[in-house]
Amino acid sequence: MRRDFKEPGRPRPDLVVGRDEILIAAREQLARGGSVLVHGPAGIGKSTILRTLTAEYAESARTVLRCSATESESHLPFLALADLLGLVIDEVSDRLPAPQRDALESALTGRGESTLQRDGLALRLAVLSVLRALAAKGPVLIVADDLQWLDSASAELLGFAARRLGGMPVRMLCAARTATDPQSQEQDRHLRALPPETLAVRVNPLTKAQVAELLGHRGYTGLPRSTVRDIHSTSGGNPLFALELGRALDESPTPPRPGEPLPVPTSLRALVLNRLEMLPVEARRTLLVASAGARPTLALLHSAGRDNAEAETAQAAALGLLAPEREGPGVRFAHPLVSAALYAEAGAQERRAAHAALSTAASDPIERARHLALATTGTDPAVAGKLGEAAAVARDRGAPSVAAELGLLAARHTPADAEPGPDERRLQAAEDAVTAGENDLARDIAREVLGRVTEPADRVQAWIVVIEAAGQSISEVDAAYPQALADAGDDPRLLALVRYQLAWRALVVEGDFAEGREEAAHAAQLAERAGDRRTELLALAFQAHIETLMGHPDAPATIKRALKEPQDPQVACHHNGAGSARFRWLLMSDQLPEARKTVTALLREARRRGMVESEVHFLRFLAETELRSGHCGRALDLARESLRLARDTGIGEGASAMLTALAEASGGDVDRALALAREAAEHAEADGDLVYLSRALGSLGYAQLVAGDAPGTVQSLRRVRELEESLGVTDPARGRWHGDLAEALVRVGEYAEAQDLIVATRERALRLGRESVLAVLDRSEALVRAARGDQESAVRQLTSVQDRLAKLGYGLEEARAAYALAGLRTPRPGPTSYDEATRLFRRCRALPWLKRAEQATAAPMPQPPAAPAPAPAALDALAVLAATERQVAELVMEGATNREIAGRLFISVKTVEATLTRVYRKLGIRSRVDIVRLAAGHRTN
After folding, report:
1. Is the pTM of this model over 0.85?
2. pLDDT tens digits, residue range 495-546?
3. For residues 838 and 852, what is the distance between their CA atoms, to the nearest angstrom?
4. How far apart are CA 262 and CA 223, in angstroms?
5. d(CA 786, CA 305)
6. What is the CATH number of domain 364-459?
């Protein structure tokens, strides 16, 4: 009978965010019969992980023993032991020797005076005997939360038993609070109460993206990303603190303005304010000044008039409010929440006084301006001017998010009749927010301004921000375009801005390359007439980008125009600038080293300038370059980094998911590749983005091919072909899916369609000089020839293809050619046939492809002599079968195993098994033996 005592509340699955690695490691340890200690600071999510694991593993245990200690009861001896064993002692007490039974009953019931000093050995042996007796009846799971509050007597007894459990089926699953400092080894003390070789897993803070996900799960949606960033920073990634801050914001009638602190709820303030009250008044004021500073140091505090800063910060450190600063003479709070709670608790006048002191003490112009603004009430043109200058400095330093905050502060202090006016400053702040990837903040600012301004230039600028803040979802702001055109009137500068956005709309929403090219060219002409070089450069770069995708002969000339001086530094490293267009042209022209050099420089500059959206794109571009070069491991790292940043900022998630799917299918996990590709397709469908929909489906088709799903590949890539034909994409180097579709068509027996695709694509590739595309098409054509029986010609063609791809630097495609060649070796592939492909896949770190090659190598070979080929009459009997079914049946007739068939046809073993089931049904037979008999019967007739 299964025993489970002290059933806890059900786990909260919505809180288990960002803990996949911890859960996987713990599950593996528990599956091996080991024990786990989960540890970390208060509120970090240890109990949630413990409940989740307990819910999963309690079902497999006969007996579950639980205890959850508290600080107020930690002085009571044997209390935890009573929680653990109190309800099972009757079940096993008759198996204990009398001295052990008496000592244990006294300890658990409180009757008598059992102590470790008096009955130490008897108690220790009794606990061990109880666990052994329970384990003899079935697996035992011990669950102990808050191990740090375990009474010392129970901890000692558990430790004694744990060290002697040996191979018994007893697992311990525990959680303990340890220091915030990850370098602390405090968990070692708790491990003494657990079995040897217990896995200790530290629970670390959540990332910003994980905090956003957690808040969303709890219903705190719609928060600006800048606010989520502040929640993450203030909470230090602690999920409990983040949820409390989210709740306080949700309940607050008005969101905090720029420069204002987050509302810290009383529940969190109480964690630190009781210790704060133990400090003298002057020490609290010193800490308030430190909390108001961005990077407080003792020197800064002295300059701000805190003469006794050393002694006062030492007092705070003794109370645990400050932590040692390892990297310099800074003043570091023990947790960001301490600083936030301290600042939130102070009155408005106290805060202004602290900022006033820092406005003269800070050496950085940005910090001085920020403190001056927060120390000033009402409008002040001098303060607004200094804030505007500081915003420009932040912009130049590559800190657009800071520039946006300073710009909004400047607008708050700008008089209505000043020049520039408050709304002009707000619009500049909105543009900075777009650069920083804070699109929701930018959109809110722009819509607020549109409700007030009447000047055409201001209104058009605001509409452009609304459109750009929509990202790939520009179909959602369709109403903005006609209003922006109406506001632009006949002003060529304003019209150029709107026409440039209409070019993007034509491409993304309408999928009309020709219209997009025309709009971009029109925008460039208008901008040139108006003397707006920035818009002209962007329009020319976009025109070049479309022409490259179209295979238009003017593309190189347009790129040269876009690269002419004078250049705008911001546009030069923009993801839609001429540098980006040149990179795409280089990549499609097989100039991989130059493409890598170009995009690496662009990425470096975008990071320097804080251009988050451009960073997302350039990370993806660099990953694509590495993938083409056959550096699959490097490509996967870059793609994952791009996807993390995209999800963190909400920018380009679909595009990054698409590229990461390609990288996962080449060098990572195929199942994850399939999931990401489908996610990318869903993003594109939802956004109405036909251009990225074709790319997403292309990545899905490739992942399906790697997974051995040839029919799925054909379905996905046929739709890509339809989309690109409707879009007007003629350059096969854009998506590079043609070879994969041709290969999949061969696998499903559609040889004629495969050959037609190869011929049509080859014509375009020859016209554009796409050498790598031509080589891949030749690889697919070799498979068509082999399928039609021309084995010798196919081998010669593949040998040539492998050499050409190697010279072009396409490492993965070279390895795929070697893999295909190994499958065509005559008379039959052997274990050594795949050595070259295995070596090349390993060099590329193409793990999914390497796995396929190793499986083909390990496949058992049929014993000679080889079975004779089926007679013509036997093949006639297979006429009722579909192409793939016929291929499988023919290979069975040759004596091939299911694994060999899977390797030869590039499909999975499960697909082979399913196909054979259909073959049996159609032929009216029961097994593969009947297929062989069918062939043999026709030979003897």
Report:
1. no
2. 999 999 999 888 878 878 889 999 999 999 999 999 999 999 999 999 998 8
3. 9
4. 12
5. 85
6. 1.25.40
